[in-house]
Specification:
alpha+beta
Length: 135
């Protein structure tokens, strides 16, 4: 039954969810999906993914009464860096910012707060300029 929904999911823009009631499809694991990690702030019970031949992925999130499914540009199983950059830009920028905080505080041991602030700012900017162009 999941095979029916894959073309529907791919016909939407990336990251645009479709809702699928739980009773209409089997558990994604039974259809070959793998349990994966997702953004914990979305409130889902579990995440699943199926990596496509071209490196994209179908991402399914299970909630209490439905699945929400969309496609991503890059599966994290193919490239976790590119997945963050293309499909999770908020996390990408946050990681760059945290890296900048760490480097800045190490480079300015006499004033770690100022160093962390400057490094974090540079890191956030670095993360923003390394995002792919809008498609």
């Amino acid at each position: 039954m999941w095979r029916y929904y894959i073309p529907v999911i791919l016909s939407k823009p990336p990251h645009e969810d479709i809702d699928i009631p739980l009773y209409l499809v089997p558990n994604p694991e039974e259809a070959g999906f793998k349990v994966t990690l997702g953004d914990p702030l979305r409130g889902q019970i579990e995440d699943y993914e199926s990596t496509l031949q071209d490196g994209k992925r179908i991402h399914v999130r299970r909630f209490h009464n439905l699945y929400k499914a969309h496609w991503d540009w890059v599966s994290p199983l193919v490239s976790s860096v590119e997945h963050l950059r293309r499909d999770a830009p908020g996390w990408w920028i946050a990681l760059w910012g945290l890296g900048g905080v760490a480097v800045g505080s190490l480079l300015c041991p006499k004033d770690r707060t100022a160093g962390a602030f400057a490094g974090g700012s540079v890191g956030v900017l670095g993360g923003m300029i390394t995002l792919p162009e809008a498609r």
